[in-house]
Target: Glutamine synthetase
Amino acid sequence: MSPVSASSRLNKNLHQHYRSLPQGDVAQVTYVWIDGSGETLRCKTRTLECEPQGIEDLPEWNFDGSSTYQADTSNSDMHLVPVRMFRDPFALDPNKLVLCEVLKFNRQPAETNLRVRCRKVMEDVQDLKVWFGMEQEYTLLGVDGHPFDWPQNGFPGRQGPYYCGVGADRAYGRDIVECHYKACLYAGIKVVGTNAEVMPSQWEFQVGPGEGLDVADQLWMARFLLHRVCEDFGVVASLDPKPITGDWNGAGCHTNVSTEASRAEGGLQYMEEAIEKLKERHAQHIRVYDPRGGQDNLRRLTGLQETSSIHSFTAGVADRGASVRIPRQVGLQGWGYFEDRRPAANCDPYAVTEVIVRTSWSRNEQGKARFVGVRSSHVGT
Model:
């Protein structure tokens, strides 16, 4: 079996001929949504009479929820409600990509539509200017499930030379990474960096900083673009938190958090208060940080390979083996952001940002909220 898909080996010059045909004044708009798994994305495309200028120009649509694990066949229509529009890096201008919320027949949020709850929580703490930056790790696989460019009957050399590595024997799949990066920038997604990770064929990109709902929207669309780019190259982008057992790093979605108060002089005290609250609710967060209530992270958070143990909470300065890390520069200067290293690569960013805010802010005697969220120069790994 070939490690790349048959579709990727079709005649791309012929494909480009049709892609470049004029389309008049109409626009192709691709609606994207989260299915019933809570981690897989679906899409379908429609034609609009002219280029939409904003969300208000995009009609609601529907789909068969019985084919996406979201409804029974007898009552299968689900509503697609556009919430965020992006430029389309595949079909190009004037065509668009649209992130949608999913509503059930009664207009209530679908079970995996966690955006509604996230939005309400973020609105409650707007005055705190909570920022997030999310570091999305992923692993490139062949369609046969084997890590891309690994020996078919063995393993590459031990971890060590691959993190931020350069060279054909150290960086596996850089073309895919660079194409995804450019696609995100074209779409209007705030990707601030990318790098090769510790395990060969594993990479990371960072989205943010920004408010929780905004960053989560952008991360979901960045994931969609990643899967589409990989589709063109005939490989698979896996968000499995532990795709390869043994002495190989897993994949997380480290989440950086700050508030206006924590980003100001003396802000370290606000971070320490938030971290203490995170410690008290460690078990609850673990249940939210992957789509299977912690079962995925059980394979990843072992206390080895730059992870903390899933069974305990730790925090430290510059400690990548801790649950929560304060970067060394932040510790030295006394203000900035902290990094929650527990979320799995396949987490729902709406759920992650929401639970961090719920846990970490409180009301003081004047009734004002205090919390902590990411500084733009501190989003990377």
